[in-house]
């Protein structure tokens, strides 16, 4: 595409019951960036009093979910008996390993008052040697997430190491990073080649790279080994994802990630048969869809 950019992905907006979602990964021309195999932007959506978001109980294997809110609030529950409210800037990381169930719903106070909801959700594939590890859960409040700043920019490092800061979140995935970066209009920011695979998701604003403009709601995949100079044409906000290549391809089906087809088949059978532990206080059940060719 140009000297620094390998591809641009413009995820379509899908409506899921009045709530818009853009899925940047996986995409037809790009399945992953480092261990990041799934990337959704949720919203923004404005809920009136009495309404809210309900991600019903569902299972995962072989991955970690990372929820990062830009606005609003969610309440996380899982089969490990964790109950945790998520607020903007906090990092909520659940490692599924051999199997876990979780739900994310609007907290009661948010639902009663209404308000704006927006956020990012990621799945990170576990290394094959760690895919069947015991599930676990970590939560880090906003004040625990390290800040980065410089001329015309400021940001937060949600996972891994970026721009001299290291997140406290335990890294189960090998070398990788996730950062939330705000750029003032006119700011210049250099993206180093610390990781082989890197991409910028433009949440808002307009950027220029090598003289080409990029509008909001697009994933800009950078070329391996090449530094990139980003110029903000307007006030902008980006989510940077980066990492070294995974140890082999992954299959994604429904909520499951694995290097082996048969493991996904087994996980589906386990869910149907009720062999996953449930969530205390949130017993709603979602049937597994029909399994088509992987």
What's the layout of helices and strands?
Blueprint: E1 5-9, E2 13-15, E3 20-25, E4 36-47, E5 54-60, E6 63-71, E7 74-78, E8 83-86, E9 91-95, E10 100-105, H1 108-113, E11 115-125, E12 136-140, E13 147-150, E14 153-162, E15 165-166, E16 176-183, E17 188-191, E18 197-204, E19 206-209, E20 212-215, E21 218-222, E22 228-232, E23 236-243, E24 251-253, E25 256-258, H2 261-272
Antiparallel strand pairs: 1-21, 2-3, 3-4, 4-11, 5-10, 6-9, 6-11, 7-8, 7-10, 9-12, 13-14, 14-15, 14-16, 16-23, 17-22, 18-21, 18-23, 19-20, 19-22, 24-25
What does this structure look like?
The protein is mainly β and 294 residues long. It has a single domain (5-243), classed as Jelly Rolls, CATH 2.60.120.10. 6% of the residues lie in helices and 50% in strands. It has two helices and 25 strands. It has helices at 108-113, 261-272; strands spanning 5-9, 13-15, 20-25, 36-47, 54-60, 63-71, 74-78, 83-86, 91-95, 100-105, 115-125, 136-140, 147-150, 153-162, 165-166, 176-183, 188-191, 197-204, 206-209, 212-215, 218-222, 228-232, 236-243, 251-253, 256-258. The strands form five sheets. Strands 1, 13, 14, 15, 16, 18, 21 and 23 form an eight-stranded antiparallel sheet that branches. The longest helix has 12 residues, at 261-272. The chain is globular and about 55 Å long. The protein starts with a strand and ends in a 22-residue tail after the last helix. The model has no long low-confidence stretch (mean pLDDT 95).
**Can you tell me the CATH superfamily?**
Jelly Rolls
The CATH topology annotation reads as Jelly Rolls
Total number of domains: 1
Q: Which CATH top level class fits?
A: Mainly Beta
